[in-house]
Amino acid sequence: MQQNPEPWAASLAGRWPEQWPQIYTAKKYALIDPMVRYLAHAQRPFRWREAMAAFRKDAYHRRMEQMMVDAFGHGLEDGYIFPIHGRNGILASLSLAGKPIELSPVEIALLEAVARKAFWRLLDLKGEAQALETVLPADTPLTRREMEILHYLAEGMTSMEISKMLKISNHTVDWYMNGLQDKLKAKNRQQAVALAFRHGLIS
């Protein structure tokens, strides 16, 4: 179970095949790891193959494939990642890997609940849980126009597409978007959408 996207750097608990962490670090796989990159915007648990498929046109896809071959050689043939979100974004993840198995939706939901519970319990034992529970940023109300833009953004529309839809300039869309990011305490548009989903502002 990791507390940030860099594996091994801040693991709260874990058990990996012998030598795999050293190989992963030596080959700098953290820079291209499709699971780490996919995790940055994941809203739900996902399987390794989903992450690989998402980056099939990526410039580093061949290195990703090499990483998967190396992982396979160490018994990590397949896996699932369970993101753990807090009030201000992703906090950690639980990674389960080994021989390929098919988890049912119910099993995935149960493991997701276990991941959250285990993460907060481990933080509690370390005395760090309270520091991560900050004031809910969504307490600040959004205007009707901000909500419109947020909905279009969640549908994957660009600033230009949104500006045409609302008949306003790109600059005005960006101005609203900056305001949204400030209110939600988001680092970028993707995180703003993720936080909006998490806080039930959009569904």
From TrEMBL:
Q: Name one Pfam family in it.
A: GerE
Tell me where in this chain the HTH luxR-type domain is found: 135-200
* Signal sequence range: none
Which Gene Ontology molecular function entries are recorded, alphabetically? DNA binding
Identify the InterPro entries for this entry: Sig_transdc_resp-reg_C-effctor, TF_LuxR_autoind-bd_dom, TF_LuxR_autoind-bd_dom_sf, Tscrpt_reg_LuxR_C, WH-like_DNA-bd_sf
Which PROSITE patterns is this protein grouped with? HTH_LUXR_2 (PS50043)
Under SUPFAM superfamilies, the record lists: C-terminal effector domain of the bipartite response regulators, Pheromone-binding domain of LuxR-like quorum-sensing transcription factors
The protein's UniProt keywords, in alphabetical order, are: DNA-binding, Transcription, Transcription regulation
Sorted alphabetically, the Gene Ontology BP terms of this entry are: regulation of DNA-templated transcription
Q: Would you tell me the protein name for this molecule?
A: LuxR family transcriptional regulator
Q: Which organism is it from?
A: Rhizobium esperanzae
